[in-house]
Every structure is written in structure tokens, then in C-alpha cells.
Design goal:
The structure is a single chain. By secondary structure, the chain is α+β, with helices and mostly antiparallel strands. It has a single domain, classed as GTP Cyclohydrolase I, domain 2, CATH 3.30.1130.10. The chain is built from 4 helices and 5 strands, in the order E-H-E-H-H-E-H-E-E. It has a 5-stranded mixed sheet. Strand 4 and strand 5 form a beta hairpin. It is elongated and about 55 Å long. The two termini are about 20 Å apart.
């Protein structure tokens, strides 16, 4: 029997938040772009067609938006780690990876980004 693993990808979630420690960064919100990859076993979800057996990506996305927009961060590492923790909260998530990018952070680069990932011990 096939036991596929679902892979959810929240792509290019564009938000604004306070991130950084320079004067201008602490006074002005900046654009950020979030990408999230969330894996979980899909067998129960497709066997039952019941939302309770799937990862609710809409709920996760709303939590990511609220956390990002309602807090201040000095470092990309902190924001990225917080978002990773949110994505690992559902007990059926086996792997998550978060990338947070700051467009225009460097003069000649499109963006600077940080990626963190985690596996759940099985």
C-alpha cells in the first residue's frame, strides 16, 4: 500500500513587520517574504476526506501572519525560528522548513534570506 506524504508549500507570503536593529529598521516596518514547506502523512486525510485528518494550512497561515505583524524582531533568526515552531505545532507534521527574505536589505541584492528546518522524531 502506498503511504504518500503530503507537502504543503505556502509560497511568497508577503507581509510587513519591524525587523532589524538599526534606527530606521526599528522605526519603520519592512517588507518580508515567507516561504513555508510542511510535510505530513496524507493517508488518513485522503482516506476519510475529513479536514480533521489534514494539516489546516489556512489556520497556520493566519497564525504566521498574526505573529509576524504583531511583534518586533531584531534578527531574521528569531522570526524564522518562531514561524518554524508554529508550523511544527500540529502533531502530524513530520517536517517543516521556513525561509524568510528581506527584499532590499542589501544594495545590490534582490534580498537576504534565512532558512531553518526541523524534523519530528518518529
Amino acid at each position: 500500500m502506498i503511504k504518500p506524504e503530503a507537502q504543503i508549500h505556502i509560497k511568497n507570503l508577503r507581509l510587513r513587520t519591524y525587523i532589524g536593529f538599526n534606527d530606521s529598521e526599528t522605526k519603520n516596518k519592512q517588507d518580508i517574504i515567507i516561504n513555508a514547506w510542511i510535510h505530513y502523512p496524507a493517508t488518513q486525510a485522503y482516506d476519510t476526506d475529513n479536514v480533521e485528518n489534514a494539516v489546516n494550512y489556512r489556520t497556520l497561515c493566519k497564525e504566521m501572519i498574526a505573529h509576524t505583524e504583531n511583534n518586533r524582531f531584531f534578527l531574521l533568526e528569531k522570526l524564522t525560528a518562531d514561524l518554524l515552531e508554529l508550523c511544527m505545532t500540529p502533531s502530524n507534521v513530520t517536517f517543516a522548513k521556513i525561509e524568510v527574505a528581506k527584499p532590499h536589505a542589501l544594495r545590490f541584492a534582490d534580498s537576504v534570506s534565512l532558512t531553518l528546518s526541523a524534523n519530528r522524531d518518529q
